[in-house]
Design goal:
With 632 residues, the chain is α/β, with parallel strands linked by helices. It has 3 domains: 258 residues, Aminohydrolase, N-terminal nucleophile (Ntn) domain (Glutamine Phosphoribosylpyrophosphate, subunit 1, domain 1, 4-Layer Sandwich); 182 residues, Glucose-6-phosphate isomerase like protein, domain 1 (Rossmann fold, 3-Layer(aba) Sandwich), CATH 3.40.50.10490; 165 residues, Glucose-6-phosphate isomerase like protein, domain 1 (Rossmann fold, 3-Layer(aba) Sandwich), CATH 3.40.50.10490. Helix content is 37%, strand content 22%. The protein contains 18 helices and 24 strands. An 8-stranded antiparallel β-sheet has the order 3-2-4-1-10-9-11-14, covered by helices on one side. It has a 6-stranded antiparallel β-sheet with strand order 5-6-7-8-12-13. A 5-stranded parallel β-sheet has the order 16-15-17-18-19, with helices on both faces. Helix 9 packs parallel to helix 13 and helix 14 packs parallel to helix 18. It is globular, with a radius of gyration of 26 Å. Bound molecules: 5-amino-5-deoxy-1-O-phosphono-D-mannitol. 5-amino-5-deoxy-1-O-phosphono-D-mannitol binds next to helix 9 and helix 15.
């Protein structure tokens, strides 16, 4: 939530001649980070001994138009912010940066300052005036107050860092703060607690970003920071200290994501592009990890075989789409490994006093690796003595860093807010984990396991073929349905989480009532929703792989039709029974049931993207959302 960029360079860099390029670097970083929030955007650059700010409510294009109309001076230092609103409506006044100390100090912030009310009251009593409704302005004013109490620039070069540390000591909640002050023109001071921040190392220039995409156009050298750290960034160098002022170190790594990965590559949206990247993404998740006989090599997992053999229970914690991937993993692990698995929404987990101990493996599934709810569940699980394994896409993110082990999905950057390739690769990683545990513990039917492994290896190709044949058909269906105001999704077994994922995609992208149910549950109440013409997507189990469930689903289809519902089936090629009963049938290649979500979900993703596009909505940036939810 909220994207943050910082840049410290100098004049005379090769690309820029003599002028500083702070504004353009910061705007480029914001463009890459806009997926994190788009309620407003703003930036501040330092030129001479002045801070120059531009900010605007709405998407980044509003800010770029403002900067074009009212250009910023050449500058060597700048900070920028793209907002997902928490405190205060998305207005110009509430946009970051927030100014204090007679407009000489600018601050941007990601996170939530939980005690901002009491701090604000205290600062108002001291005579400070506020111009916004945000918790961020409280941090800015408090920082200015601390800075002045310390003596301002009279107190020497380290005063801004000291003031930031003192301010952090007073803040409760999660935050990444970036501050610049006109009295320290070449310097950015940043601090982080429970909120992401990465450093980028350039040649004569350095960067800060909520994640590496904030500076990926300029450098691949990055430094991962620890918890409760302060960073002082200039063109010449980066100094990392802890909140107590002691010297600290970050871990340097090379960013392997292709900068090109953050362009649409001819697709109408990032989401559509990412849907089409799924064959390759799944291939990368599997690469070097799976043999056709079912043996799995999870190099770098970080959790010993001994520990995994002793596990008595697994709890999967995740949110949203990632939790549906976790539900599919549950079916595979329980079937092949005979270990009980619970799936918890991460934000519910620690509040229900769960039964977790040293024999529990907690699997935290997160694309971003920064979802605060999931991070808090990870911390809680480790406090209880559980072993925590992260399934994550973002190398070096907080969740894998704080876990005992990690299984990276290697899906590549996912820019669209709606998760697509992250989901498929999380499902793939969950299946790999299940196969690995089955091998280690000697469970599961060996023939079924080697069949599953062989089929899993074929999945990228099957997804590819399906994408090539379904796209236009689904676009036509979506266009014909664009006036629908409600759609239901039902499924059984692993089709149930697929149905919920299909509904979530439609809710978040098209803002219509969409509900996913277990098909067997329909008759226990939800069937009352069915009326003449209501579209119901039915994720049909394989007739060969799950004949009993297939037959039951045929009965459900009859019940829907009898009440006037329109059945749109997602079913296997050659499933003539379903074809006969449904108004529209979207086909998927045949597979063993546990693998079928890797196919059926893709059809629902395509439908949601086409449906939102047919309604003229912004597919990549749905309203009210942000890609990475770093508040609880
Ligand atoms: O980064 P994470 O995987 O932890 O994010 C979890 C959810 O916020 C996320 O899956 C969300 O539900 C999707 N963007 C929906 O498409």
């Amino acid at each position: 939530m909220c994207g943050i960029v910082g840049y410290a360079g100098r004049v005379g860099l090769v690309e820029t001649g003599t002028a500083g390029r702070a504004a353009s670097v910061v705007l480029e970083g914001l463009r890459r980070l806009e997926y994190r929030g788009y309620d407003s955007a703003g930036l501040a650059v330092m030129a001479g001994k002045e801070v120059h700010v531009r900010k605007r409510a709405g998407k980044l294009t509003n800010l770029t138009a403002l900067v074009e109309a009212d250009p910023l001076p050449d500058a060597v230092v700048g900070i920028g912010h793209t907002r997902w609103a928490t405190h205060g409506a998305p207005t110009d006044a509430n946009a970051h940066p927030h100014l204090a100390d007679n407009d000489r100090l600018a601050v941007i912030h990601n996170g939530i300052i939980e005690n901002y009310r009491s701090l604000r009251d205290r600062l108002v009593e001291r005579g400070h005036v506020f111009r916004s409704e945000t918790d961020t302005e409280v941090a800015a004013v408090l920082l200015a107050d601390n800075y002045r109490r310390l003596g301002g620039d009279q107190a020497g070069t380290g005063v801004l860092e000291t003031a930031v540390r003192r301010t952090c000591a007073d803040l409760e909640g999660s935050f990444t703060l970036l501050a610049v002050h006109a009295e320290h023109p070449g310097l950015i001071v940043a601090a982080r607690r429970d909120s992401p921040l990465v450093v980028g190392l350039g040649d004569g220039e350095n960067f800060l970003g909520s994640d590496v995409s904030g500076f990926i156009d300029f450098t691949r050298r990055a430094v991962e920071l620890g918890q409760d750290q302060v960073v002082s960034l200039t063109a010449e160098g980066v100094t990392i200290t802890d909140f107590g002022g002691l010297s600290a170190e970050g871990r340097e790594f090379t960013v392997d994501w292709e900068a090109a990965a953050a362009t649409k590559d001819g697709h109408p949206s990032f989401m559509t592009k990412e849907i089409h990247e799924q064959p390759e993404a799944v291939r990368r998740t599997l690469q070097g990890r799976l043999d056709v006989d079912g043996s799995v090599t999870l190099g770098g997992l970080g959790i010993s075989d001994e520990v995994l053999k002793g596990i008595q229970k697994i709890v999967i914690v995740a949110c949203g789409t990632a939790s549906y991937a976790g539900q599919i993993a549950k079916y595979a692990i329980e079937r092949w490994c005979r270990i009980p698995v619970e799936v918890d929404l991460a934000h519910e987990f620690r509040y229900r006093n769960p039964l977790v101990d040293v024999r529990t493996l907690v699997v935290a599934v997160s694309q971003s690796g920064e979802t605060m709810d999931t991070l808090m569940a990870v911390r809680y699980a480790r406090e209880q003595g559980a072993t925590v394994l992260a399934i994550c896409n973002t190398v070096g993110a907080t969740i894998p860093r704080e876990s005992d082990g990690v299984l990276y999905t290697h899906a590549g950057p996912e820019v669209a807010v709606a998760s697509t390739k992250a989901f498929l690769t999380q499902v793939t990683a969950g299946l790999l984990l299940a196969l690995h545990l089955a091998r280690l513990r000697g469970t599961g039917d060996p023939i079924e396991i080697s069949t599953a492994a062989a089929e899993l290896l074929e999945m990228p190709e099957k997804i590819q073929c399906m994408l090539a044949t379904s796209k236009e058909r689904i676009a036509a269906l979506a266009a014909a349905m664009a006036d629908s105001t409600a759609v239901l999704f039902i499924g059984r077994h692993v089709g149930h989480p697929v149905a919920m994922e299909g509904a979530l995609k439609l809710k978040e992208l098209a803002y219509i009532h969409a509900e996913g149910f277990a098909a067997g549950e329909l008759k226990h109440g939800a069937i009352a929703l069915i009326h003449e013409g209501l579209a119901v997507f039915v994720v049909v189990p394989s007739p060969a792989g799950s004949p009993i469930l297939h037959a039951k689903m045929m009965s459900t289809i009859q019940e829907i039709k009898a009440r006037g519902g329109r059945v749109i089936a997602i079913a296997e090629e050659g499933d003539d029974v379903t074809a006969g009963w449904s108004e529209t049938m979207l086909t998927i290649p045949s597979s063993i049931p546990l693998l079928s979500p890797l196919l059926s979900t893709v059809q629902l993703q395509l439908f949601a993207a086409s449906f939102a596009a047919a309604k003229g909505l912004d597919v990549d940036r749905p309203r009210n959302l942000a890609k990475s939810v770093t508040v609880e």
